[in-house]
UniProtKB/TrEMBL annotation:
Pathways per UniProt: Purine metabolism; XMP biosynthesis via salvage pathway; XMP from xanthine: step 1/1
One CC-aspect GO term: cytoplasm
Pfam family, one: Pribosyltran
Zinc among keywords: no
Record-stated family: Belongs to the purine/pyrimidine phosphoribosyltransferase family. Xpt subfamily.
Organism from which the protein derives: Fusicatenibacter faecihominis
Catalysis performed (reactions): XMP + diphosphate = xanthine + 5-phospho-alpha-D-ribose 1-diphosphate
Coiled coil: none
CDD domains: PRTases_typeI
Gene from which this protein is expressed: xpt
Protein name: Xanthine phosphoribosyltransferase
GO molecular function: xanthine phosphoribosyltransferase activity
EC number(s) from the headed UniProt entry: 2.4.2.22
Subunit structure: Homodimer.
Length: 193
């Protein structure tokens, strides 16, 4: 998505350790007009999928999922990250391992909000190692709902997440794929799509 790539080049900051800071428009301050264009692009790419629910994960996926949901006219459910153990029964739950933060956490979604008959689109801001998306896909599968695909704003193409998600046969649409970046020069190379 040209508009997004231009914005990443203009306002993104490449940090040491292959981290891309996009706090100026995506992860801290949020440019809602850009979000609306992103939402329309997701809608265009999943137009014929009869999505009836968007599933994301707290915290930073929620904003983008909500604006995208306006294009789909569907509700958003966000998986909660929790330490709580006594949650079996009323929720679907799975474990997510964060490489970046070096910890494992549980994610949960109430059984009330996901189940058979749902056609679910996953939305997230970043795809790095893919563990968050894999966890969400697991919850969808456990619930008996149909997973129609995953929409990601920025994929770090040099990390393993995108390939892992595609290898599972999940229809993944990443609006910008960073092939490489250089924290000395600030140069960012995007994958041709
Ligand atoms: P993953 O396996 O789910 O892809 O996540 P990973 O552990 O690699 O990354 C941990 C967190 O850091 C994720 O957010 C992910 O979105 C974010 N992240 C990874 N790489 C980058 C990057 O280059 N730039 C930015 N801005 N974020 C990145 P999270 O832990 O789910 O936290 P939250 O922010 O949603 O609360
Ligand atoms: Na994040
Ligand atoms: Na996120």
């Amino acid at each position: 998505m040209k508009l997004l790539e231009d914005r990443i080049r203009r306002d993104g900051v490449v940090k040491e350790g292959n981290v891309l800071k996009v706090d100026r428009f995506l992860n801290h301050q949020m440019d809602i007009e850009l979000f609306q264009e992103i939402g329309k692009e997701f809608k265009r790419r999943f137009a014929n999928e009869n999505v009836n629910k968007i599933l994301t994960i707290e915290a930073s996926g929620i904003g983008i999922a909500c604006i995208a949901a306006e294009s789909f006219h569907v509700p958003v459910v966000f998986a909660k990250k929790t330490q709580t153990k006594n949650i079996a029964g009323e929720v679907y739950t799975t474990q997510v391992e964060s490489f970046t933060h070096g910890r494992i956490y549980d994610i949960i979604v109430s059984k009330e909000f996901l189940g058979k008959g749902d056609r679910v689109l996953l939305i997230d801001d970043f795809l790095a190692n893919g563990k968050a998306l894999e966890g969400l896909a697991q919850l969808v599968q456990d619930s008996g709902a149909e997973l129609v695909g995953a929409g990601v704003v920025i994929e770090k193409g040099f990390q393993r997440g995108g390939d892992a998600i595609r290898a599972k046969g999940i229809h993944l649409e990443s609006l910008a794929i960073v092939e490489s970046m250089n924290d000395k020069t600030g140069e960012i190379v995007f994958r041709e799509q």
